[in-house]
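Morning run. Coffee first, then this:
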Amino acid sequence: MASNAQGEQAAKPQIQPCRYKTGKTLGAGSYSVVKECVHIDTGRFYAAKVINKRMMQGREHMVRNEIVVLKRVSMGHQNILTLVDYFETMNNLYLVTDLALGGELFDRICRKGSYYESDAADLIRATLSAVAYLHDHGIVHRDLKPENLLFRTPEDNADLLIADFGLSRIMDEEAFHVLTTTCGTPGYMAPEIFKKTGHGKPVDVWAIGVITYFLLCGYTPFDRDSNLEEMQAILIADYSFTPLEYWRSVSLSAREFIKRCLTIDPQQRMTAHEALSHPFVNDEIREREGGREQGGDLLPGIKKNFNARRTLHAAIDTIMAINKLREGGGGGVDGGGDECGSEEGGEWE
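And here it is:
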C-alpha cells in the first residue's frame, strides 16, 4: 500500500489537457456513474468510473493512495478488470478501465441455451482465483455481487472479470452501511459487517457463497421482503436449499461449498485459497467424481426465478431512487460542470 506523503504525491494527478471524450452512460451507483470514453490520441475505447468527491468527505488522499496499489494489482490477473488511468477534476474522480464488452454475468447466463452446475463451478473458480490474488495483495473487495462480474468480450470463452475492486474499503463503516442499505439489497454482505465487530477478507468468501447459491437457483439465500428482514436472516444464516424443485439437480458438493462459505464465524469460514481446493470448483476432483455433466439443465428454473425477482426489486429500487433524489435535491455525480468533454477534450480543473 502506498503511504504517507510519498504515496500521495505519486498518486496525485497533474493539471494537463484532458485525453478522453466521454460518451453514453453504462451504469450508475449511489456515488458514481460509469461512462464509455475514448482516448483522443489513440481512438481506443475504455470505461470511466466517475466518483463524486463530496462522498469521499475529505478522504480523497485515501482514494489516491489506494489507486496506486489497485493499478499495479489489476494488471497482474486475467480475471480482474485492468485500471489503466485515473485523474480528477474539481468535483469528480475518474477511474479509467478496460471496456468489458461481454456484459454482466447473469444476463449472459440467461442468454445461454443450457446451463449446468459445472458451468457455475467454472465461473466461481475464476472469481475465487481473482479474489485470492487480491487477498494475497492485502485488498478486500467488500462488494462482490453478480453486477460486479463482467465478461471481457462477447465470445463464449471470454474471461470473467471482477470490476469495482477494492475501492469500497476506503469508506468508513457508517458511510459504507448507508450506501449499501439505501441503494439496494444488502443480501451479499457478511454478518460481521452488520455486527460492526471488524471485518476483512472473509467477507469476500461469504459473498462468493451467496453468489454461488444465486448462480445455482436464480435467487439469493437471504431474499426477504425488506432489508431489515434480510439482515436478520443473514445474522443467523437463515437459509435453506428450497424449494426442492430448484435444487434437485444440484450436487451435495455444491451445497457443502455454499455452507462452508456461509459460515457465521469468519474464523471458521473457508479462505479463498481453501475454497479453490474444494471439490465443487476443483476440476481434477470433480472429474474423478463423475465428470462435468452431472445433474440436469438449471437454466429454466434460474430464468423463472431471476425474472420474477428482478421485476419485484426493480420496482423497489425505483421507489428508493426517487426518495433519494427528493432527499438530496437532485445533484448527481456530474454536478459542477467539470466532466471531461463529451464532444472535445477540455482542461482538467
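Residues 81 and 302 are 27 Å apart (CA to CA). Good start to the day.
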